Amino acid sequence: MDEDLLIKLASIIVVGIAAQWLAWRLRLPSILLLLILGIIIGPVTGFLDPNETFGDMLLPIVSLSVAVILFEGGLSLRLS
User: Fold this and answer.
1) Which of 4, 40, 53, 58 is most buried by a 10 A CB count?
2) Per the domain annotation, does 7 fall within a domain?
3) Distance CA 30, CA 20 (A)
4) Is residue 27 part of a domain?
5) Residue 80 falls within a domain, yes or no?
6) What's the whole-model pTM score?
7) Into how many domains does the chain fold?
8) Torsion-angle region of 27 (φ positive above 0: left; ψ -120 to 50: alpha; else: beta)
């Protein structure tokens, strides 16, 4: 694998874990910080270009990610 790709994938994982932990500490919805940090490392700084990094695998990765987010949101939903 390309070293640049591995750095980008590792940074996505680290930023995601940091956002989850920070949201837990601040008692905020985790999706809020994940969106903000995703926008920062993507379009704002230009560090990560999904089309360039993932190519043809972008659509399946996004679809799977949305399914996981909705599943997690449904599990943590309080009906009361």
Assistant:
1) 53
2) yes
3) 6
4) yes
5) no
6) 0.71
7) 1
8) left
Query: Mind spelling out the 3-state secondary structure of 1-70?
Result: CCHHHHHHHHHHHHHHHHHHHHHHHHCCCHHHHHHHHHHHHHHHCCCCCHHHHHHHHHHHHHHHHHHHHH
| Domain span at 60 | 3-75
Q: Is residue 59 part of a domain?
A: yes
Q: What is the pLDDT of residues 18-74, one digit of tens each?
A: 999 999 999 998 889 999 999 999 889 988 888 888 889 999 999 998 999 889 888
CA dihedral 64, 47, 54, 32 (to 10 degrees): 10
Q: How many residues does the chain have?
A: 80
Amino acid symbol at 50? P
15: its two tokens: 């930023």
